[in-house]
Design brief:
This protein has twelve helices and 22 strands. By secondary structure, the protein is of the alpha+beta class.
Length: 515
């Protein structure tokens, strides 16, 4: 991968090249070159349902696969991690960075016939900030108020530096719902957006079916008439479904690559900035003690997992950024003895925490083959140092709700969302965040996080970001394990737009089929 880190704070003009994982680009892959069938059906095979079709209630960023169909975002993030216009045609920080002003498209209508305008943006942001069940209000904490001074101009007033806000508005927080649908009792299963497709059928655990929005403002976006997203948790079955004509695109476990290629499928590494990471309940024993969390980090042999479980599809990390990211802190690596593999030191830390005879804890395992595989690998590593995991398998889409909202379990290893801004990988360490119901933080981290938002260029922000990354290592609420780059496979009848690379979290904008 070539990782690019340009944070666009202003933008104007242009179209939507499309992308879903910040900072990664392989230059695109080659799909079919035949004529696209405008009445064709594109089928993607994924591993889970959306946790909800309501972006403001979504605690699972993998829901974006579905939201990119149903909803437009204010800003689009392309394959190189650069920000481009979408519903917002241009934006800039004004008044010494105390406000963000956005100009909006004037030709967009929600699928229920309601107009998109500045009042709709204001209503969406205010709902995301105040809804009791909002999972994203923490990402918008920098917003003091929202104004609609003109029909197609929005002013977002800030209560402090907010350099990450444009990037935040390219994902769930920037997904625009028709305000008339806010109180729909079925919004969690029946999205009402202005996106390129409309949901026609949803069978949880099986499939969601979509039809092209014929009134969509960008006629080049939906190249297929119909889209279908199937749920299949088993990697070999996903490969078999493609090879037998039941789908066009999927990702799979690395050990299934040989069978995928033998079946005549096209295979390439997925565009991915996704990490597997430990997440701890830092409000209850044993992981309320930072020494125990540190012991877990030292007990896990990351490289052994990558080599033995994932066939080399990834690399070990000690921070929540890939090594080639523009904001990467070169001092926080597994080569540092505080962060690498050291089971003897892990035993010492457990003893210092009062667990010299070991300790048991409940480990949740999201019900996906890759999550099961990494869990099975780490459990004996933990047992070696005295950490005995009692496991419970939980539904993957609702794992965040199970762990953070209902506060069940002591720890789990999950796959993090694709990157927005570096600060969004770390904001869960602040008070009042969905992923931090225990409000576990430090003054040093909060100060560094504040400084990471100051400035209008990457260079100006870098000292604060590096300090933020370093301070987070003293908290260890979430401990990185590895970057995961699983393979994707597609059939010969898929047509990709120029520069497109199938991602671990893919969008289907500009993707079509020949039959």
């Amino acid at each position: 991968m070539v990782l690019v880190g340009t944070l666009a704070l202003t933008a104007c003009g242009g179209g939507n090249g499309g992308g879903s994982e910040e900072g990664a680009s392989t230059g695109g892959v080659t799909g079919a070159t035949g004529e696209i069938n405008p009445d064709g059906t594109f089928r993607y095979i994924f591993v889970q349902n959306p946790s909800t079709m309501d972006p403001h209630r979504s605690g699972n960023a993998w829901d974006m696969i579905f939201f990119w169909l149903a909803y437009d975002q204010l800003i689009w993030k392309n394959e190189a991690g650069e920000l481009e216009p979408m519903l917002a045609t241009e934006w800039e920080f004004v008044d010494d960075g105390t406000a963000l002003e956005m100009s909006l498209r004037d030709d967009v209508t929600f699928i229920d016939g309601e107009p998109f305008n500045a009042e709709a943006v204001k209503a969406n942001l205010e709902r995301a900030m105040t809804l009791e069940e909002s999972a994203i209000k923490g990402s918008l904490a920098r917003i003091e108020s929202v104004e609609a001074p003109e029909e197609f101009k929005v002013r977002i007033n800030l209560n402090g530096p907010g350099a990450n806000l444009p990037s935040v508005l390219s994902e769930r927080a920037g997904s625009m719902i028709s305000p008339a649908a806010f109180d729909n009792p079925d919004l969690d299963q029946n999205p009402v957006g202005s996106g390129m497709a409309k949901l026609t059928e949803y069978i949880p655990g099986q499939v969601s079916r979509w039809e092209r929005n014929e009134d969509y403002w960008d006629p080049e976006a939906a190249k297929a008439k119909n889209y279908e997203v199937y749920v299949q948790t088993a990697s070999p079955t996903r490969v078999n479904m493609l090879s037998t004509g039941q789908g066009e695109l999927t990702y799979f476990m690395p050990q299934d690559q040989e069978s995928a290629q033998a079946s005549g499928l096209n295979v390439a590494p997925s565009l991915s900035t996704t990490e597997f990471r430990w997440t701890f309940n830092s409000g209850e024993p044993p992981f309320d003690d930072p020494k125990v969390r540190h012991a877990v980090e030292l007990a896990v042999d990351r490289q052994a997992i990558i080599d033995g479980v994932f066939f080399g599809a990834g690399y070990p990390i000690a921070q929540h950024l890939p090594p080639d990211h523009w904001a990467y802190n070169p001092d926080v690596t597994i080569e540092n003895p505080d962060y690498g593999y050291d089971p003897e030191r892990a035993k010492e830390l457990l003893a210092e925490a009062g667990y010299e005879d070991g300790v048991e804890f409940e480990m949740l395992i999201p019900a996906l083959d890759d999550h099961r595989a990494i869990a099975e690998a780490v459990i004996p590593m933990l047992a070696e140092v005295g950490l005995t995991a009692e496991t419970r398998v939980v539904e993957s889409p609702t794992t965040p709700v199970t762990f953070f909202s209902r506060q069940e379990g002591n720890a789990y290893i999950g796959a993090s969302a694709p990157l927005l801004d570096p600060t969004n990988q770390y904001e869960q360490n602040l008070e009042g965040q969905f992923r931090n119901p225990w409000n576990n933080t430090s003054e040093e981290f909060q100060d560094a996080w504040e400084r990471s938002l100051e400035g209008t260029t990457n260079e100006e922000r870098l000292p604060g970001i590096h300090d933020m990354i370093a301070e987070e290592k003293d908290l260890r609420r979430e401990v990185p394990v590895m970057l995961f780059t699983p393979p994707s496979a597609w059939t010969d009848n898929v047509v990709f737009p120029e520069g497109y690379t199938p991602a671990y979290t893919p969008h289907f904008r500009g993707v079509g089929v020949t039959d």
